[in-house]
Design brief:
binds adenosine-5'-diphosphate, alpha/beta, DNA recombination, single chain, 11 strands, DNA helicase activity, globular, 14 helices
């Protein structure tokens, strides 16, 4: 597992639970989503009704699970958490839906990865609070309608565009989660440090925030590694120097690139003069699988404006040369 991976890992789960904001006021950033969601929830509460279904789109680690828990808390409702890949058969979904309590929030992570039959069952459940349970097989199969209590579905997906339109249309509200600004991540870090009982100063938080790839989950993870370092090598207090020294040990650089990112970028610059070079060639040069380079390293490099994917291959941008402290070769008259 990479330190800068935005997905959850085993060790994280307990700490993450402890660090999750409990209500909308504690939730840092995402002003637009927060304001809109606040209205949706207040209105539902005023009507004494179950909140509309909510779709949250955005990269891993930006707070979708946290928001779904906040929705349940604000509606004073229980929450059930599951994910698209966990629902392979329509029957799996029917079992979950039929056991929901009135007003319960059902959080469905990676909703775009649900199986097709389950998805179709979900349409009806979302709209009419009803499912047809198929009993038996073949020509003798019968559909038994089953009434469901009203519930709120909170679906999460990396991109709303991945959802089939009929599913997308059944959500009353869609919130798009953005990557966080450094100042917002600093607030996340100060809050987490308080909860973890770690002392961190303004510069220390800024140093970690700048390396966190716009993602609270990564910020919290880096904070814990820096805390270890501060405890072992210093007096436990995190300032700029301690944060920088700790993250140097973990090979996370000033912009949040790790060893793999820098290997890909370094090969592109040093071996291929900045490209264009094909993905497979680049992968062989860094000794990684094609998929690893394409799916793990590249998205962040592209987002950071360090690498571009062109029809002729991968190309480094001028910022890439600067970042690795290299000088681009002379062009034009060579
Ligand atoms: P996702 O479901 O989008 O992958 P999570 O909701 O699990 O992300 O959030 C990952 C971690 O980041 C959690 O520990 C959570 O406390 C923290 N986090 C996410 N968003 C925020 C936020 N806006 N403010 C404070 N902490 C946050």
């Amino acid at each position: 597992q990479r330190l800068v991976d935005s997905g959850p890992d085993g060790e994280d789960q307990a700490v993450e639970a402890a660090l999750r904001p409990k209500d909308l006021d504690e939730f840092v950033g995402q002003e637009k989503v927060r304001e809109q969601l606040d209205l949706v929830l207040r209105a539902a509460r005023a009507r004494g009704a179950t909140a509309d279904h909510v779709l949250l789109s955005g990269a891993p680690g930006l707070g979708k699970t946290t928001l779904s828990m906040i929705i349940a808390a604000e509606m004073n409702a229980p929450i059930r958490i599951t994910s698209g890949p966990a629902i392979q058969h329509a029957g799996d979904l029917a079992a979950i839906l039929s056991s929901l309590q009135e007003g319960e929030v059902l959080f469905l992570d990676e909703i775009h990865r649900m199986s097709r039959p389950a998805e179709e069952m979900l349409y009806m459940a979302m709209e009419d609070f009803r499912v047809d349970v198929i009993v038996g097989k073949g020509p003798g199969a019968t559909a038994i309608p089953l009434e469901l209590p009203p519930f709120t579905l909170v679906g999460a997906t990396t991109r709303a565009g991945l959802l089939p339109p009929p599913l997308r249309d059944r959500f009353g509200f869609t919130g798009h989660m953005e990557f966080y600004e450094p100042a917002e991540l600093e607030r996340v870090l100060h809050r987490s440090a308080r909860l973890l009982d770690v002392e961190i100063d303004t510069d220390g938080a800024a140093e970690i925030a700048g390396r966190s790839r716009g993602t609270p989950r990564i910020a919290n993870r880096l904070l814990r590694r820096v805390r270890d370092y501060a405890q072992v090598k210093a007096d436990g207090i995190i300032d700029r120097d301690i944060a920088a020294a700790a993250l140097k040990v973990y090979e996370v650089d000033a912009r949040g690139l790790d060893r793999l990112d820098r290997a890909v970028l370094g090969a592109l610059l040093k071996l291929f003069g900045g490209g264009p070079v094909g993905l497979s060639t680049l992968a062989v040069a860094v000794g990684e699988e094609r998929e690893t380079v394409e799916e793990v390293a590249e998205p962040f490099l592209v987002r950071e404006g360090l690498l571009a994917r062109t029809p002729r291959g991968r190309v480094a941008t001028p910022a890439a040369w600067t970042h690795l402290g290299l000088v681009p070769p002379q062009q034009g008259n060579g």
